[in-house]
Write a structure and sequence with these properties.
This protein is 32% helix and 17% strand. The protein is of the alpha/beta class. The strands form four sheets. Strands 1-2-3-4-5-6-7 form a seven-stranded parallel sheet. The chain has a two-stranded antiparallel ribbon with strand order 8-13. Strands 9-12 form a two-stranded antiparallel sheet. Strand 3 (71-76), helix 3 (96-105) and strand 4 (109-111) form a beta-alpha-beta unit.
Length: 326
């Protein structure tokens, strides 16, 4: 699976934040380095690509782990909130020593912003997380860089816009173009099921406004997640959308529709590095306004994966994939 999907990310992006929710999770430097090496080994020889590794936070994690140079950031998964999150955090207070160390080191905290409380409706879990958990984290760690990953609600947008301290959010291509009607009306479409789940159209519109606003607190984050067709189309289907093959084209389509193409570069290439304190990439992507067919099924180890919007045409395509800025 890794060998099949890594080239699609590397063709569009020169680096990526790599999530640590493997089985077992990436909770130490040795495992992170091994995973990084596996990704690099799966790259086509003509593509330069840098995986930026993250640490999977647990209640018992030793704060010293965050001093490992291999870790660019750490990911907070509330236990049982999403894919492979069983080892995630159950007690935010127990995590405070780790967060203090991260704040001192300047390493960002990346948050899957949903509560896993079974009493909370799945469509409300992001808003409740913002109220119950995120507001307290922002107050208790004023200098900690916090990224609310793959936001899906107007509540998430408002929190990021109004929060004090270094706060940002990523927005996926799919959450900019689908809402829960696309997932549920006329039949259940398992290939549009992801977590956080797509919400009402009014929330989608809030995400689009945030993405194209020019506010540097919002930037690209694909949350690409490949699952075999059999695992998606099952009695208990996997959450995740494989958007890597079409991500930039979909973002371009959205910014074009919103009359904000002049702000796409900042959202895609400038805001994220600035927040992370990383240098800008030295190469450019060329996007062309030209109808293009979305790739069809991809085979990986005997399994089939469907890219986001398979069978459709997009208004944009990637031309020469990398251009020098010289």
């Amino acid at each position: 699976m890794l060998r099949a999907v890594v080239p699609f990310t590397a063709q569009q992006f020169a680096r990526a934040i790599v999530m640590p929710n493997l089985t077992p999770p990436v909770t130490d430097g040795a495992r992170a380095r091994a995973y990084r090496d596996e990704i690099v080994a799966a790259l086509p020889p003509d593509l330069g690509f840098k995986p930026l590794m993250t640490c999977y936070l647990t209640d018992e994690l030793d704060p010293a782990v965050m001093e490992e140079e291999v870790f660019t950031a750490a990911k907070l998964y509330p236990a049982h909130a999403t894919t492979n999150s069983a080892h995630g955090v159950t007690n935010i207070t127990a995590l405070h020593p780790v967060l203090e160390r991260m704040q001192d080191l300047g390493k960002p905290l990346l948050v899957h912003g949903e509560v896993a409380d079974p009493e909370v409706d799945v469509f409300d879990r992001e808003a409740v997380f913002v109220e119950r958990v995120l507001s307290g984290l922002r107050r208790d760690f004023p200098d900690l860089r916090i990224v609310l990953e793959h936001i899906t609600t107007a509540d998430g947008v408002a929190f990021v816009e109004e929060a004090e301290g270094p706060t940002a959010a990523t927005i996926t291509p799919h959450h900019l173009v689908i809402d829960r009607n696309d997932l549920l009306v006329g039949g259940i479409r398992p290939h549009l099921y992801c977590l956080p789940i797509a919400k009402r159209r009014c929330h989608r519109e809030a995400l689009r406004r945030a993405a194209v606003s020019g506010n540097p607190r919002f930037f690209l984050g694909t949350d690409t997640a490949p699952h075999a067709v059999g695992d998606k189309e099952s009695a208990c289907g996997c959450a995740g959308i494989f958007c890597a093959p079409t991500a930039l084209e979909v973002y371009a389509e959205v910014f074009d529709e919103e009359g904000a193409l002049d702000r796409l570069e900042a959202f895609a290439s400038l805001n994220g590095p600035a927040f992370y304190g990383l240098p800008l990439n030295e190469e450019r992507i060329l996007l062309e306004r030209c109808p293009t067919e979305v790739p069809g099924c991809i085979t990986a180890g005997g399994n089939t994966i469907l890219p986001f919007r398979t069978g459709e045409k997009l208004a944009w395509r990637i031309g020469q994939s990398r251009m020098s800025t010289d």
